[in-house]
Design brief:
Elements: H1 5-21, H2 26-33, H3 37-49, E1 53-55, E2 60-62, H4 64-86, H5 91-104, H6 107-117
Helix pairs in contact: 1-2, 1-4, 2-3, 4-5
Length: 118
């Protein structure tokens, strides 16, 4: 795995915020994820160095590679959140636990689970 869970969560945050607001800045991610702006700036530098984002100083943009991973992480998160809520888990708990599940299950297990439950 090239990126860790936290870095994948940052990409997902960019993806979500972009869908909501169109433009994403570090301050938006800091507010959304309840982290300090210096922490976000450091993380964005790493993501940029690894080719997942472009920081054009006006906004953060996902590269093709970043878009693909962010979308995958977000789709998995939404799937597990919905599954947990259908099982009776409260939304806030489902959201937190889906965030863990999206990173832990392999792509193969995720696809097999989706197919089994479809």
């Amino acid at each position: 795995m090239e990126l860790g869970q936290v870095q994948e969560d940052y990409l997902e945050a960019i993806y979500i915020l972009r869908e909501k607001n169109g433009r994403v800045k570090c301050v938006h991610i800091a507010e959304y994820m309840e982290r300090s702006k210096p922490t976000i700036l450091t993380a964005m530098k790493v993501l940029e160095e690894k080719g997942y984002i472009i920081n054009d100083r006006h906004s953060l943009l996902l590269t093709e590679k970043g878009e693909k991973l962010a979308k995958r992480v977000h789709e998995r998160h939404q799937y597990f959140k919905k599954l947990l809520m259908l099982a009776g888990v409260e939304e806030e708990t489902a959201d937190k636990e889906a965030c863990v599940m999206e990173h832990v299950l392999s792509e193969d297990s995720y696809e097999k689970l989706k197919n089994y439950l479809a």
